[in-house]
Design brief:
- The chain is α/β, with parallel strands linked by helices.
- The strands form two sheets. An eight-stranded parallel barrel has the order 1-2-3-4-5-8-9-10, surrounded by eight helices. Strands 6-7 form a two-stranded antiparallel sheet.
- The longest helix has 22 residues.
- It starts with a helix and ends with a helix.
């Protein structure tokens, strides 16, 4: 069942965070749905209520243009039928104004992110406000961003610029955005921190204190970049170096401070890369594309279960279902 992030955030605020996972293809979609239902090897396996979780399925601009946006939308619609127990939102990740309008008008997305964080403050307010007005007319909710994460996201290369708490309060009031992605020290890509850097919980607390009670915040660039997966990639012929991520025990702490949505993309790419490289290394005679695909879907499902446990969302699916029924 496709739902609004607004309803998901009402249920999770201050208690747990919801994983927002990017997909680009069929195998990622199937592994994601299986993982959020506690199914590992088969679509037909019974859902496991102890680990089943609501989630946010994210589509980036790059994923939409990789082949054709209609392919991904068709995969998601099919997954909703194959996995009727699932409760999830469909979200545009890091959209431009033009792409946001396309997604809003499509009637498919329940949530869009307008990312004008690279613009000056007043320009960011202006663009975000226009998107909010258009989205709210169609019942679509809007995530915006203030401050900048380091690293590379789509075609934008940025340095870290932490979110100013006072500006955050003004930005939310003037734009009417439904949630706010804040820069609290994390970065996109495989290298999040250097030296003694880490998540700026002090800055997060100041932002939360200035915003209305219950206002949902978002943490981008939150992949953990586990060294075990990096090592598996490198042992199978990869060459990843200088990697670092967000400690997974920071997820739940952030959730208790108002972070309702935590974006995880890089970790999923690492799982994909490791499984496929190992398959090619260990079975050089095998040219069946389904061989690594089957292994990846199972491994990704297990990894999603692990992530949801760290987010605190594992086991919350039936609670959310009851909450939605009463709303």
């Amino acid at each position: 069942m496709i739902v609004s992030t607004r309803e998901l955030f009402k249920h999770c605020y201050g208690k747990y965070a919801i994983g927002a996972y990017n997909i680009n293809n069929l195998e990622q979609a199937v592994g994601l749905f299986r993982g959020n239902l506690g199914k590992i090897k088969s679509n037909a396996d019974p859902a496991n209520p102890q680990v089943s979780a609501p989630f946010i399925l994210q589509i980036s601009r790059g994923a939409r243009s990789y082949t054709d946006k209609r392919f991904l939308e068709a995969i998601i619609r099919a997954a909703e039928q194959v996995f009727p127990e699932a409760i999830f939102a469909v979200h545009l990740d890091h959209g431009t104004e033009e792409v946001c309008y396309d997604c809003i008008d499509s009637g498919f997305y329940t949530s869009v992110m307008i990312d004008a964080s690279h613009e000056p403050f007043e320009k960011n307010v202006e663009i975000t406000r226009r998107v909010v007005e258009r989205a709210h007319e169609k019942g679509v909710v809007v995530e915006a961003e203030l401050g900048q994460l380091g690293g590379v996201e789509e075609d934008v290369v940025a340095d870290v610029k932490l979110t100013d708490p006072d500006q955050a309060a003004e930005f939310v009031e003037r734009t009417g955005c439904d949630s706010l992605a804040v820069a609290i020290g994390t970065s996109h890509g495989v290298a999040k921190f250097t030296g003694t850097q880490g998540v700026r919980f002090d800055r997060l607390a100041e932002i939360q204190r200035r915003l209305p009670p219950g206002y949902p915040l978002v943490m981008h660039g939150a992949s953990a970049v586990p060294w075990e997966w990096v090592e598996r990639i490198n042992r199978a012929g990869g060459a990843l170096a200088n990697t670092s991520g967000v400690p997974e025990d920071h997820y739940f702490k952030a959730a208790q401070m108002g972070v309702c949505k935590i974006n995880i993309d890089t970790d999923g790419r690492l799982v994909w890369c490791a499984i496929y490289r190992e398959s090619f290394r260990d079975k050089p005679e095998d040219f069946d594309p389904r061989t690594p695909g089957k292994a990846f879907m199972a491994a990704y499902a297990e990894y999603i279960i692990h992530k949801n446990k760290m987010l605190g969302s594992a086991g919350k699916l039936e609670e959310v279902r009851r909450f939605l029924a009463q709303a």
